[in-house]
Amino acid sequence: xxxxxxxxxxxxxxxxxxxxxxxxxxxxxxxxxxxxxxxxxxxxxxxxxxxxxxxxxxxxxxxxxxxxxxxxxxxxxxxxxxxxxxxxxxxxxxxxxxxxxxxxxxxxxxxxxxxxxxxxxxxxxxxxxxxxxxxxxxxxxxxxxxxxxxxxxxxxxxxxxxxxxxxxxxxxxxxxxxxxxxxxxxxxxxxxxxxxxxxxxxxxxxxxxxxxxxxxxxxxxxxxxxxxxxxxxxxxxxxxxxxxxxxxx
Length: 249
What we know:
The chain is mainly beta. The protein has one helix and 15 strands; from the N terminus they run H-E-E-E-E-E-E-E-E-E-E-E-E-E-E-E. Strands 1, 2, 3, 4, 12, 13, 14 and 15 form an eight-stranded antiparallel sheet that branches. It has a four-stranded antiparallel sheet with strand order 7-6-5-11, with no helix packed on it. A hairpin with a 2-residue loop joins strand 6 (125-128) and strand 7 (131-132). The relative contact order is 0.20.
């Protein structure tokens, strides 16, 4: 083998090992995830980039790229805690031209209901197992001047003591009065913190099987408001106060 061929082989071998290590890290440790919508405001903003820990809930086939059918369930079977912010797969099947297609979409919401819980919204208030969840006013929240929307902000206290901020436009919006949802065994009920602007388990997302959990949002490594007007400024739109921060309740 000539020196040139050896150099080319070393180059491809280095790429192979780099891709293998990156894939292993992404599958077993942390996967990057970006926030495309405002459904988790004020906790997560559009343009936040975060790492999702894979081992926290255990592993399932959805822990790996393309969701290979390697095994069923979770290994080990570790469930989330109420109040965790979780990334999960919403799987939908449809028929086109006589062929079935399957789409897997990543969502990120907060774990509100655990297996066998009952969940209901009445006049804008959250009830878990028939008990109204406490909340207290915490001023207002305006995403940006461009949005032209100001939300009422509250601090909600879940039954296990986890406190987190939520947003409300009012207490008579589209998902503010619901039937009682009974969470099936081995499933979870997810809700966005932006209560009146979130497609979650109150709507067509429905209950989330434990197997569909991808991981828990743990670390924010970058936050950029991509809508910044001054694109010539290097740090325009960068939210420095959110960089390299832990994602708590």
